[in-house]
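Thread: sanity check for a docking pose with zinc ion

Original post by kr_44:
Hi all, I'm comparing my docking run against an independent structure prediction. Below are the sequence and the ligand SMILES. Could someone generate the full complex and paste the structure tokens? I mainly care about where the ligand ends up relative to the chain.
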Amino acid sequence: MGEFNFSDHPHRRYNPLTGEWVLVSPHRAKRPWQGQIEKNDIKILPFYDPDCYLCPGNIRAGGKINPKYTDTFVFSNDFSSILPDTPVGGINEKDLFIADTENGLCKVICFSHLHNLTVPEMKQEKVRKVIDVWVNEYEELGKIDFINYIQIFENKGSMMGCSNPHPHCQIWSQKYLPVEIEKEQKHQENYFKNHNRTLLADYLEAEISKCERVICSNNSFIALVPFWAVWPFEAMIISKRPVSNLLELNDKEKDDFADIYIQLTIRYDNLFEISFPYSMGIHQAPTDGKQHPEWHMHLHFYPPLLRSATVKKFMVGYEMMANPQRDITAEQSAERLRSLSKVHYKMHNLN
Ligand SMILES: [Zn+2]
Ligand SMILES: [Zn+2]
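Reply from moderator J.T.:
Ran it for you. Here is the predicted complex with zinc ion included:
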């Protein structure tokens, strides 16, 4: 079998942010790439849908009427998963039955008044407006006493269970640190204690010098497939400067943030020439009133697609019972994404 190498031999990789492992089986991905493109289910969407609860002027399920907004629109989720006024309570019986009240607020942010637009098709100055809303929400929600963590996330595409194509994201803010954040906080804290630098600052420096897993970049941000990626085309966007949250970004960095978000999602759309589904989330410092120099703000993108517009990766069997596994390596995925056009395929197809 020759000497060990990452592109031929089964191995496991460590995620230093979470302390978890992924099994990589590159010998199973040897067949040549078939960039299958299935254009059979392309739906042409209208820019306004009278039945959409997010479109301007429409009535939502709770009976409220959306304003005739342009650009962005924020409202409290009519069916929030967590509520601000739940009475405080909890149990711990024999260390076996443990529960606590969770308090919080859930909001929805429309990215645009146009029903049929998505981030990769938006102009940079319009995406910048979305980022300004995120900054404002993080600041305002963070001021609330019982809010200690703010999760901004985008669920895109029916494959991700998102029932409405209107471009939007959600913010769930809450009292307790969610599981993923607790893991990342612990590992970033340990790293910062031992190295006096953020884990992701050192990781980014190493990735820039290797260049194997970088997809694209600008002055302030890098998009890459992390060494420990689980999903076939998983990516992270990491700020070059170790900022702990959105509030620390300067004006230029916010513009660059909009740019990298568009750059990455254009490549995603170009991969199979479809509106590419994914879950995106921003990970940043808790708003618990403490300083968090260990936190380095970043975004995760978890797309489910494997090798075509319809073939998706399943997390079942070994992955449910043991740990995640992938065939195509992070380096191969990064190369695929890096080699794609910077111009959205819809613009190409106009020519
Ligand atoms: Zn709509
Ligand atoms: Zn993270």
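The two ends are 48 Å apart (CA to CA). Hope that helps with the comparison, let us know if your pose agrees.
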